[in-house]
Specification:
alpha/beta; transferase; metal-binding; binds magnesium ion; eight-stranded parallel β-barrel; 11% strand; binds phosphoenolpyruvate; single chain; phosphotransferase system; 328 residues
């Protein structure tokens, strides 16, 4: 019930065996930080910065300026009162068009979106990177890059960040020199070639919304195939568990920031895979926390191992439901 959930707002998310789990909020605008703080989030795990850019149909100079973006990022950082804010660089294209008139791609989800778009528009990207870096002088900020798949994209992105830093230095503007840079793992190729990311990145964040879309070849916004969008498909579980395990083995933080992280049906399964960081819509946070407070990790790890060996979808679904039904 609501009242019961309210009681756990201030206590940390710790499993019965004492493992601390970090619960973070997904936000779209700085004003969402109030709800994030209210929910007891330990920080922002995903700031979808494209919402500052959307609805400004037209040409480039109608896009938010560096100062305007900086103000928004700083506002979020200040509102989170010392808790980390993970700002994802522009993820436009596909279901989030910047300019409706430009929507001509036949397969927008496979087209020029997110980091591909930013690397094709270096001035726009540089402006955003400088604005984010400037906000990092006001509290802990992390940079998150969407839709990376290729090593050269990572290298070009890192070079752009260095250039943004260099420009700020010459302008004598303060920023966090050691800002952490992470990659969204949301293209199957990225999950399957994870060492390439582990080598170059400070942290990883799994975007299950796109990872499922691309793994199963299901358009996430097409209602006609929505029944085929199954987070428990063995291929999806394989990718998820592999990324979490390899990240942990390499000692680099891994979070999940797609819808799966905020769905209590999957909390125990993700815990069983070894996930320590969940980022979700603030409205889901207390329910997920309650699930964690009643979970015993050893039991869940054993059950998850069995589930990952299973290849029968109905048996997997039943086993995942079973995990939830049995308070350990
Ligand atoms: C995802 O793909 O899971 C994700 C978190 O990003 P978005 O939903 O904004 O694409
Ligand atoms: Mg995504």
């Amino acid at each position: 019930s609501r009242r019961k959930l309210g009681k756990i707002k201030k206590i940390p998310a710790i499993t019965l065996d004492g493992t601390v789990i970090t619960l973070l909020a997904n936000i779209e605008l700085p004003s969402d930080c109030a709800t994030a703080m209210e929910s007891g989030a330990s920080g922002v795990g995903l700031f979808r910065s494209e919402f500052l850019f959307m609805g400004r149909i037209g040409t480039q100079h109608e896009l938010p300026t560096e100062d305007e973006q900086f103000e928004s990022y700083r506002q979020a950082v200040t509102a989170m009162k010392g808790r980390p804010v993970t700002i994802r660089t522009l993820d436009v294209g596909a279901d989030k068009p910047l300019n409706v008139e430009e929507q001509t791609a036949l397969n927008p989800a496979l087209g020029l979106r997110a980091i591909r778009y930013c690397l094709a528009e270096p001035q726009l990207f540089l402006t955003q990177l400088k604005a984010i870096l400037r906000a990092s002088a006001f509290g802990p900020v992390k940079l998150l890059i969407p839709m990376l798949a290729h090593a050269f994209e990572i290298d070009q992105t890192l070079a752009m960040i260095d250039r943004a830093k260099q420009e700020l230095r010459s302008e004598k503007i303060k920023f966090d020199e050691h800002i952490k840079i992470g990659a969204m793992i949301e293209i199957p190729a990225a999950a399957l070639a994870l060492p390439m990311f582990i080598k170059r990145m400070d942290f990883l964040s799994i975007g299950t919304n796109d990872l499922i879309q691309y793994t199963l070849a299901i358009d996430r916004v097409d209602h006609e195939v929505a029944h085929l969008y199954n987070p428990l498909h063995p291929a999806v579980l394989y990718l998820l568990s592999t990324v979490i395990a390899l990240g942990r083995k390499a000692g680099i933080p891994v979070s999940v920031c797609g819808e799966m992280a905020g769905d209590v049906k999957f909390t125990r399964l993700l815990l069983g895979m070894g996930l320590l960081e969940f980022s979700m819509h603030p409205a889901q946070l207390l329910a997920v926390k309650q699930e964690i407070l009643n979970s015993d990790l050893d039991g869940l790890i054993a059950q998850t191992k069995k589930i990952l060996r299973n290849t029968e979808p109905s048996a997997i679904a039943a086993a995942v439901n079973q995990m939830r039904a049995n308070p350990t």
